[in-house]
Amino acid sequence: MRDDLTTQIEQYTAAVIDRQRPITSEEAQASVAAISDPPKVEFRTASRRRGWLIGVAGAVTVLAVGLLTVLTRGTAPEVPVLSQPSPSPTVATPAPTPSPTVAAPAPIPSSAVWSAIPGSALGAGMMTSVTVGGPGLVAVGSTPFGDHPEDAAVWTSVDGITWNRIPHDEEVFGGGSMSSVTAGGPGLVAVGSGVWTSADGLVWSRVPDDDGMFDDVWMKSVTVGGPGLVAVGDAGEGAAVWTSVDGIVWSRVPHDEATFGGTPDGGPSMWHVTEGEPGLVAVGIDWSSPFDADAVVWTSVDGFIWTRVPHDEEVFGGSGHQAISGVTAAGPGLVAVGVERSTNMQGVIWTSVDGLTWTRVAGDESGSLDAGQMNSVAVGDSGLVAVGWIGRVGGPYSDAAVWTSGDGIVWTRVPHDDEAIGSGLMWDLINTDSGLVAVGSDGMDAAVWVTGLED
User: Fold this and answer.
1) How far apart are CA 305 and CA 259, in angstroms?
2) 39 in a structural domain
3) Global pTM?
């Protein structure tokens, strides 16, 4: 295999984009600029090649071959420094007529200053999810897998600025990858190629898979809801949902083809789940063919019974690929972000009052969404913040990007600052009482960006 960075990116990107089917060498060369699956994926066999959007991030981090920089585990303080703001944003309840009017909060200043934490302080790897918990903040992801097995990885921080990676334990983290983490169960629950739990964010256990429930599946997102916890992702049959009361004992929701779909060559995959009207909302992608995909939304009242929102071509479809990668309760009720790839790539926003009827937000003339991919959205102190990247994926070909909105409908991209934000791929963000923290990857290293924490 050629060892120049561009060739490695092309090969990895092509494989991740078409994980739902075997790919040809010609398709691999044509796919380098396409969108791929969330980093919340595992790259194992051709039969596991489902999805596409965010996994391209691994095009840099997973190409790192060599020794990992393992940082010494920090000592947890008695009282966490950071805490998630409360109360959580209230979801508007729709009135029969007219539709409820939601007052838009003041926009977050576009001059908000973001700072990147040097990747050398975080070590090789990719952070895909972050939550408040443990000693303050806990981020999860994976180490590079290149010529050796991928391993799950956990980082912790007291203040969002100084981070320590939990020392590797082969029995706990070996041969796996974490996609998402949330506060719940015994303290913290992470999912991915399996399930992990921790009481304090420092000591982790892997949930046994005695009955093979986690074989050939990928759990991409987990949230508190339903009977206790709900995780979503995909399996051989299509999209999949798992539930748990305590984070330790899990059950999979029976597969219903009309709801969760799935074919040997593709089908739907759930990428993110959150609490919101009518109870829980999951979002993702549905491959109608190897070269065409549409955004898709599911809802559930209790986490056990799910309904797929009927497809609307104007809202969820179009030429090329559309996918929703993140959703939160905010704005008119719910705000989702994602990407469209047709002749060009651009960020896309969808809104809904009730989770059942959705509207695609039209792009503005300023071009703030052009060439962008929006991966995650959260409520900030005075509006909404979305993170992702701008430009071609991988190292020097992309820049980390931040967008803000006062109402979830009108968006502005924060002006890029090479010194402050720099290159890289932002995967997830969290709002704390002290400020915002985004995590991702920059080249071969894990990456963190913060704003407000220094004030």
Assistant:
1) 10
2) no
3) 0.78
